[in-house]
Amino acid sequence: MKVSKIKFNEEASRRIYEDYLKRVARSIKSLPKKDQNEVLLEFNSHIYEGLQHNDKVNEIDRLLDVLERLGSPEKTLKPLVADKKLEQATRTFNPLHVVKALALNVGNGISYIIFFMLYLMLFGFIFLIYSEITDPKSTGLFFNGNDFQALGKINPEYLIESTTHEILGNWFIPAMLLSIIVFYFLITILLRVKRKVRSL
Q: For the whole model, what pTM was predicted?
């Protein structure tokens, strides 16, 4: 359903109203078209209803009062956009949507910061695959005897001086690919669980 623009008697009122709707549209542009349309319809409906129940005679004053009650779209819509992106991410398993959802939700609690850090670790596995291809001698899962030393890059000089050795060999890239898949689905499922718990 398309947004039916409200008719105003004064040109200044129309410009203020259209500018506000543009700000709403900019604030929700990262959402799917269906969600964008729903938000615009809802805001338009609030403005229309607010204008009907306002006893001020001046059209501009009535409109400004309604918009002031609705608040700045950039601030008002931030939690809604973050929640919608999270819903989209958990529904689609799309990495881009998950990253955007986490970035938008970082300010919404410590658990999202933890999720964001987990996602950064996921990208660390991708970097390790690239590093293994470009510098295989100093990249891997390193142990010194039975003691874990490092997962990642290590100084080649240190390898020569110590008894540290890489244990995965040719299995390093498959192990990292498997880690990426498992980690990604784990994070997305945890996000889905968190969202369900929050909606209870």
A: 0.55
